[in-house]
Amino acid sequence: MQHDRIFNFSAGPAMMPEPVLEEIRQELMNYQGSGMCVMEMSHRSPVFQQIIDQAEADLRRLMEIPDNYKVLFVQGGGTLQFAMVPMNLMKNGKACYVETGSWSKKAIAEAKKYGEVTVIASSADKNFTYIPDCSQLDIPDDCDYVYICENETINGVTWNQLPNTKGHVLVADQSSLFLSRPCKVSDYGLIWAGVQKNVGPAGLAVVIIREDLLREDLPTYVPTYLSYKTHADNSSLYNTPNCWAIYCCGKVFRYLLEIGGLEEMARRNEAKAKILYDFLDHSQLFRGAVVPGDRSLMNVPFVTVDKELDLQVAAACKAAGFDNLKGHKSVGGLRASIYNAMPVEGVQALVDFLREFEANYR
Ligand SMILES: *Cc1c(COP(=O)(O)O)cnc(C)c1O
Fold first, then answer.
1. What are the contacts of 340-343 at 24+ separation with CB within 8 A?
2. I need a labelling partner for 192 at 20 to 30 A (CA). Which of 137, 203, 298, 319 fits?
3. By C-alpha distance, which of 284, 266, 267, 286 is closest to 276?
């Protein structure tokens, strides 16, 4: 790595690809002859219009998004989507949620403010260390949508097989696995992702929504800004958007296309995560927290034999240049977030360090 950068295992905001950061630096003072930085640009200018159009076009190519889906760039990060989803999609006032960890719990709590929420499956019984079997769920006919968090950032579980929604609309929070593997968009009614985990700067969510879910007849309490239709009708330029984040995300979309798209990204992510999981599976001191079939390739929670030692490991890692390995405060232990932009060298170096720590400990 150049510029004395460290391997940053943060769960988010997280690492961005170095070639992208370099490009952004080169364009910082004068974006492509415009004489200004993207941060200084009018969002109504042709030069910014070109940036947002290109970002959308590249994302559409990357995910092969069908024409009957809108791509929206919405402010408010991930958390606002916990409210926007029920506000916009609860027609009958009923939704089904699958509870698989901290972020789906937050989504459930927020949705309850707007309607009747049924938790149709949960892995709370085993501390959210697996994805429940969702092949035969009991879903009421008048349920407006089924909601999942496709990768639980804190608990480290990932859906590898989507739930059988029996024809109901599927909504997925993809924040922490967005663009980490191929995704068949037509399986979903709505996909959303806060971008600071796997794409760019915080404060922006990408929403991919099937057109028939955009509604005219929203309850009057829904603010204009919180209607998906507002953003769709105005091509994400209803008000001043997060121009800077859109620009940076656009760079990352382009970068992913250039390296070979989502299949290549998935191949790299699998190889990268395998190095860490193989180590954890063979270690006497460390062990992964999640059942093997449902492990996340993005967020890897692990523990030692006791809490004190976990903290010691995190501190030793930090001193050695591996930052942000302390587990989330709600679950403790350790967590390595190894998103798209984490190079394989970073994971290998971490594993070498942990192996040596273990050898010295014994
Ligand atoms: C980080 C995260 C969020 C919340 O994102 P904010 O932008 O901080 O509001 C929601 N869902 C998942 C899965 C996340 O990882």
1. 340/17, 340/179, 340/180, 340/198, 340/256, 340/265, 340/268, 340/269, 341/14, 341/15, 341/16, 341/17, 341/18, 341/198, 342/7, 342/9, 342/14, 342/15, 342/272, 343/1, 343/7
2. 137
3. 286
pLDDT in tens, 167-223: 999 999 999 999 999 999 999 999 999 999 999 999 999 999 999 999 999 999 999
What is the rounded CA–CA span in Å between residue 361 and residue 44?
A: 60
pLDDT in tens, 264-316: 999 999 999 999 999 999 999 999 989 999 999 999 999 998 999 999 999 99
Q: Which of 103, 159, 192, 244 is catalytic?
A: 103
28-43 pLDDT, tens digit per residue, is 999 999 999 999 999 9
159 has catalytic annotation = no
Distance in Å, CA 76 to ligand 1 centroid: 10
Contact (Cβ atoms closer than 8 angstroms) between residue 180 and residue 298: yes
List pocket residues of ligand 1, CB cut-off 6 Å.
12, 77-79, 103, 149, 153, 173, 175-176, 194, 197, 202
pTM: 0.97
The residue whose C-alpha atom lies closest to atom 14 belonging to ligand 1 is: 175
Geometric angle at alpha carbon 81, from 16 and 58, rounded to 5°: 45
Let me know if 173 is a catalytic residue.
yes
Q: Which residue has the tokens 């059988």?
A: 164
**Beta strands of the chain (E only): which ranges?**
7-8, 69-75, 94-99, 116-122, 145-149, 151-152, 157-158, 169-173, 190-194, 204-210, 287-288, 299-303, 322-323, 334-337
